[in-house]
Design a protein that fits this description.
The structure is a single chain. By secondary structure, the chain is of the alpha/beta class. About 25% of the residues lie in helices and about 10% in strands. Strands 3-2-1-4-6-5 form a six-stranded mixed β-sheet.
Length: about 250
């Protein structure tokens, strides 16, 4: 399943993008929007064969003028600029230190493909289905799930997970410095209506047509007093907006 003409991949970075070689089989058909953070005079190298645009702070200031302050500086929240310049319906954003995981059969996992499936399938926020994703092959709605709700609602956000280093807060990281997540879980479920969640922007896809303006990562980085809440802020705002649209 591919949406090459409808989806952009947004990557914030401060380094050469060698990590893309691992993702080449999955990302090469897509257009990349690379947002270079930090020193705009630094030369960022992108592996050959990828279709991409590369923006730096000079571009942000040139295109946004006096409103350039709205885009975080020296923080991965600068990815919002990529969301802004994209003209595609769907966005997939990933950090530049994320690598391809493997399933228990030692096969590479195409995370982007799963995100696309999620965005093109309905969500079920009103009643939890105990077989998780009822639209997945080999699953369905369980006995007792109302027929009137089985059409679901449009999916606005697909939140991915990852292996290895958990996304803990600083105090938890201090007391569990060696803890690693090694348990691969192949499951898709809808976050229920009325429930917030701590969104992480490092492996995330969303539908710009449904929720784009709400997917704004809070100001972080240089000149800002607080760190590491930018993506959570966007998650809280977008989740509340999903309740109003309605979508999920």
């Amino acid at each position: 399943m591919a949406l090459a003409d409808q989806l952009d991949i947004v990557i914030p970075t401060i380094r050469n993008l060698d990590f893309l070689e691992q993702w080449r089989p999955f990302f090469e058909p897509y257009h990349l929007i690379i947002v270079q953070d930090g020193d705009p005079t630094k030369n960022i190298k992108v592996p050959a064969g990828f279709d991409y645009e590369l923006y730096n702070r000079n571009d942000i200031e040139r295109m946004n003028g006096e409103r350039a302050w709205c885009i975080s500086y020296k923080d991965s929240a600068c990815r919002c600029f990529g969301f802004m310049v994209s003209k595609k319906r769907y966005i997939y954003t990933i950090d530049d230190d994320c690598f391809v995981a493997k399933n228990p059969s030692n096969e590479d996992i195409n995370a982007l493909e799963q995100h696309i499936k999620n965005l093109l399938s309905p969500a079920t926020p009103y009643i939890f289905n105990t077989l998780y994703d009822p639209y997945r092959e080999g699953a369905d709605f369980v006995r007792g799930y109302p027929f009137s709700l089985r059409e679901g609602v449009p999916t606005a956000i697909s939140h991915g997970l990852w292996l290895n280093i958990p996304d803990y807060d600083a105090p938890t990281q201090m007391v569990k410095p060696l803890e690693r997540n090694t348990r691969y879980v192949d499951a898709v479920m809808t976050i229920p209506k009325g429930t917030l969640y701590p969104m992480c922007g490092m492996n995330l896809a969303f539908d710009r047509a449904l929720i784009g303006p709400a997917m704004y990562f809070g100001l972080m980085g240089e000149g800002q007093p607080i760190g590491r809440y930018d993506d959570m802020w966007a998650g809280w705002c977008s989740k509340v907006c999903c309740r109003l649209v309605p979508c999920w």
